[in-house]
Prior knowledge:
The chain is mostly helical. The protein has 8 helices and no strands. The longest helix is centred in the last third of the chain and has 27 residues, at about 175-200.
Amino acid sequence: MLKQKSSSKGIQEKVGQMLAFVPLRPNHWTVLALILGVMGAFAISLMQDLAFGLVLFVLGGALDMVDGAVARARKESTKFGGFLDGVSDRLMEALFLFAFMFYPLPEIMIDPKIWLASLVFLGTCMPSFVRSYADHHGVITNKNAKKMGGLFERSERLLIITAGLAAGIVISMDYFVGAIIIAVILSAITVLQRIIYVFQNSAE
């Protein structure tokens, strides 16, 4: 699991302080990021423009990274803001993957749409679900739930998918589908790791 480095955290905080003077509340930054994600999905699925779609998603991801820093700079951090940010993260990722179901991709072993749907389920949805469901039912303590990690989490997943798409745009979309397949396999391992973690740290 990749850990956020203090230098990266410091940069985010500085950017947050700079953007705190813009007349937008932290939740507005989150919604703006999501709007860019929707535009990126349209660019890929309807316009068939991979490069433009990728740029929009990257910009949306950048805004999504600073909304929390803005909230801290403006002293406007709220539980709802954290909730909205988490939901926006998952929607952004799902929109990105679903957009490619309308884009012609090479078939590797099976229909690429199956790989995409599998990644939405095993990567975008299940890791967070295992954590929140175990915490909700009191199977593990909230403290242990927050410690729950895994081999392949969101930052790693987005990194390999973005790298695969970049290689796909420049060389061949086979690389993008290959990155999706790798992400599906590693996400499945991560879900299994989290289930085992819950079993080993059961509060009962």
